[in-house]
Specification:
The N terminus is likely disordered. Helix 7 links the parallel strand 6 and strand 7. The protein has 409 residues and is an alpha/beta fold. It folds into 2 domains: 144 residues, no CATH class; 218 residues, 3-Layer(aba) Sandwich (Rossmann fold). The termini are far apart. Helices cover 33% and strands 17% of the residues. Strands 6, 7, 8, 9, 10, 11, 12 and 13 form an 8-stranded mixed beta sheet that branches. Strands 1, 2, 3, 4 and 5 form a 5-stranded mixed beta sheet that branches. The structure holds S-adenosylmethionine (SAM). Keywords: Methyltransferase, Mitochondrion, RNA-binding, S-adenosyl-L-methionine, Transferase. Pfam families: Methyltr_RsmB-F. It is found in: Mitochondrion. GO terms for molecular function: RNA binding; RNA methyltransferase activity.
Length: 409
């Protein structure tokens, strides 16, 4: 039996070239590890950005300390220690059901990855077929529970979306582009699937992903079901190109016909596309707590902290635009990857105050209770929303805030 580090290195057989960061793995047996390195022709990437060599921006940290100690109380100290230690961060693997997954699934299971999401008893769709009409969908993402476990855990709810995870902070190499082949998996912070699950897209839905680049959540939506339309929008031209490349790398040509890609300001859609969608996702631009802590210069840190003050206004405008673009009865999911109350609850509160006929929905039963094995949530606040907090080893997902608003009239 190999130690966790060695099992991670075994993952090299999944990719053509490994770029594992050994810093992310607790090495129990160096002998075992070196045996494997000898057997494998793959090299460990020593330049991985996810090592403790990353520099913390003290200015940003001080700012976070002041704000989050007040907002999260004693929870902040545990969150802080996870955020400051990239070596302990977990990485989820969302499988691309549009590729042949047979071999990949088996290998991930051998490596101790287990399914993150409750799976239905339905058979998973085979490669190259379109997904069945299920709400939690066919998105899969894997995680590592116990190195000795070779079977996936029991399925606790319906859906075929696949994401596998490990408790250990092991990271697969990102799949490389291969001409004529779709990429088999997408690496992500597993908490970023929660807004997609909350959106609960069903077959035929007209969906807008208002702030879409680089496209992780758009891909996740397509793993769950086949929408009637998936309109992916991104205001920034370069990021829009990136989004387009992501979609081409994962989505088969026939399904691309369901996609619409635009490069516009999301704030305009409330006027130009009033009531046109069943579901809208606003994965808003926000203070990205994880990356902001590791900015390369003090000046950049200062700049971000200035920009941070402007974000709640932009976020509220985007959310109001989405609420106008959704039809009566339709739903909007608002999400961010920051802990900041000003960018989360306060934005939802502002939108509820300005947009008549809108109700927030409680996601506790539907999502938080079912996924508490993997995620830690901050104590609930009003308006209802879930805040995933990275707070201990094996629960390092997040930050991710999400709230679902239903347009009644
Ligand atoms: C958090 S990222 C989205 C991540 C994406 N949903 C994913 O899962 O890969 C927010 C995005 O919103 C874009 N954005 C910022 N302002 C916008 C606006 N006014 N309209 C539309 N998109 C905007 C940013 O350029 C950025 O790409």
């Amino acid at each position: 039996m190999h130690c966790i580090a060695c099992r991670a290195l075994l993952c090299v057989s999944l990719g053509k070239r490994a770029n594992f960061n050994l810093g992310t793995v607790r090495v129990r047996s160096t002998k075992c590890l070196s045996d494997l390195q000898v057997k494998s022709s793959y090299k460990v990437n020593e330049k991985s950005p996810l090592t403790s060599r990353r520099k913390v921006c003290q200015r940003v940290l001080e700012h976070f300390d002041a704000q989050y100690a007040e907002e999260l109380g004693s929870l902040w100290m545990s969150v802080r220690s996870v955020l400051l230690n990239p070596d302990c961060w977990q990485h989820g693997v969302m499988l691309n059901r549009f590729t042949d997954l047979g071999d990949l699934r088996m290998r991930l299971q051998e490596l101790g990855y287990t399914s993150l999401l409750p799976q239905s008893d339905q058979e998973r769709p085979s490669a190259h077929t379109l997904p069945p009409p299920v709400s939690a969908g066919s998105l899969e993402c894997v995680v590592h529970e116990r190195p000795s476990t070779h079977t996936l855990p029991p399925r606790v709810s319906s859906g075929s979306l696949e994401c596998v995870v490990q408790r250990a902070p092991v990271r697969l190499p990102a799949p490389r582009h291969e001409r004529g082949r779709l990429k088999p998996y997408f690496l992500l912070n597993a908490a970023s699937l929660l807004p997609v699950l909350a959106l609960a897209v069903t077959e035929g839905d007209r969906v807008m992903d208002m702030c879409s680049a680089p496209g992780g959540k758009a891909l996740a939506i397509l793993q769950t079901t086949r929408p009637g339309l998936l309109h992916c929008n991104e205001v920034d031209k370069h990021r829009c190109d990136w989004l387009s490349k992501t979609l081409e790398s994962y989505v088969p040509a026939p399904l691309m016909e369901t996609l619409q890609l635009t490069n516009q300001d999301g704030r305009d859609f409330g006027h130009t596309h009033q009531g046109m969608y069943d579901k809208v996702l606003v994965d808003a631009p926000c203070s990205n707590d994880r990356s902001w802590l590791f900015t390369s210069s003090v000046q950049q840190g200062e700049l971000w902290l200035k920009e941070r003050q402007k974000l709640p206004k932009l976020q509220a405008q985007l959310l109001c635009s989405a609420l106008a673009a959704v039809r009566p009865g339709g739903a909007v999911v608002y999400s961010t990857c920051t802990l900041s109350r000003a960018e989360n609850h306060a934005v939802v509160e502002a939108a509820l105050a300005t947009c008549p006929g809108v109700e927030p929905e409680d996601l506790q039963e539907e999502l938080a209770n079912q996924l508490s094995e993997h995620f830690s949530f901050a104590p609930p606040l009003w308006p209802p929303g879930l805040l995933v907090v990275p707070e201990r080893l094996g629960h390092t997902w997040g930050p991710m805030y999400l709230s679902r608003l239903r347009r009644r009239t």
